[in-house]
Amino acid sequence: MGPPLGSLPLEGRVALVTGSSSGIGAAIARHLAARGARVAVTSRSADRAQAVAEEIIAVGGSATAYVADLTVAERCGELVEAVAADHGRLDILVNNAGIGMVRASVAITLEEWNQAIAVDLTAPFLCAQAAGRRMLETGCGGVIINIGSVFGRLGMPERTAYCAAKHGLGGVTRALAAEWAPYGVRVLQVDPAFVRTDFILESMARGGFQPDDVERRTPLGRMADPAEVATTVAFLASDDAAYLTGSSVAVDGGWMSYGGW
Asked: What CATH code is assigned to 14-249?
């Protein structure tokens, strides 16, 4: 459920976490709430979003559930505006919602390509654009954190669409950071390697390898826990990271530092 309530570096702030009804997103929502933020939990499923919001409330946190299908471009801005209107402000946006795609490059259809780009690149940009517009207009600054991937810095067979989207997301992060820094809006990225979630385990199964293969390849000898990504996000969202913007933090157990298999 995240760290205990007590130290509240994010008290009074409103955080929107996309795709936060399970896995990494749910862990991020719990950790931000445990640090005092009022968290908007989002999902395409009302029941799943509400379940995570209720878990947060049950341990003393503040959370509200929202339904949003970010494959529909118009929903991105609408979600941001709804959260800001309901809470009177928006201080933190975490672009976590995404999809994976394991497919031989010669077999990727245009529809599949467009879906990967829409969810993993276009939706984060549109959410950041809407949040940034509001943060700039209010003059109060804010923090936008994009959840990327080590495969936004590297390549991997049968991940062409996914890698293209995540590489693009890194460019969005750096460009927005440079543009909005003078206005007090920080934009950062967290790049996990393999995290032990149902989503990742299913993706590995489709790709023909197992957790043991990943653990053997990772210098720290294990996959990450979602909470380890969440604590990094919570730090970047706090004033302790006030001089960080445009940076990408790899939460990868040493994956990128090791060139073997």
From this structure: 3.40.50.720
Cα–Cα distance for residue pair 31/70, rounded to 1 Å = 23
Those residues with Cβ within 8 angstroms of residue 55's Cβ, 6 or more apart along the chain or in another chain = 1, 30
- pLDDT, averaged across the chain: 94
Q: Of 2, 22, 18, whose CA–CA distance to 197 is shortest?
A: 22
Sign of torsion over alpha carbons 77, 43, 226, 153: negative
Using one digit for the tens of pLDDT, what is the confidence trace for 228-250? 999 999 999 999 999 999 999 99
User: Is the Cβ–Cβ distance between 80 and 93 less than 8 Å?
Assistant: yes
Report d(CA 7, CA 148) in Å as an integer: 28
Q: How far is CA 84 from the centre of its chain?
A: 19
Three-state SS for 103? coil
Encoded amino acid at 233, one letter: V
Query: Domain segments of the chain: what residues?
Result: 14-249
- DSSP run (H or E) holding 199: helix 198-207
* Minimum mean pLDDT range among 33-42, 196-205, 223-232: 196-205
Say how far apart CA 92 and CA 20 lie, in whole Å: 14
- Is 183 an annotated catalytic residue? no
Tell me the β-bridge partners of 185: 142
Specify whether the CB–CB gap between 142 and 185 falls below 8 A: yes
Q: What is the pLDDT of residue 124?
A: 98
Q: Which of 66, 162, 183, 243 is catalytic?
A: 162
The 10 Å Cβ neighbour count of residue 191 is 26
pTM of the predicted protein model: 0.94
**190 phi, psi to nearest 5 deg:** -115, 125
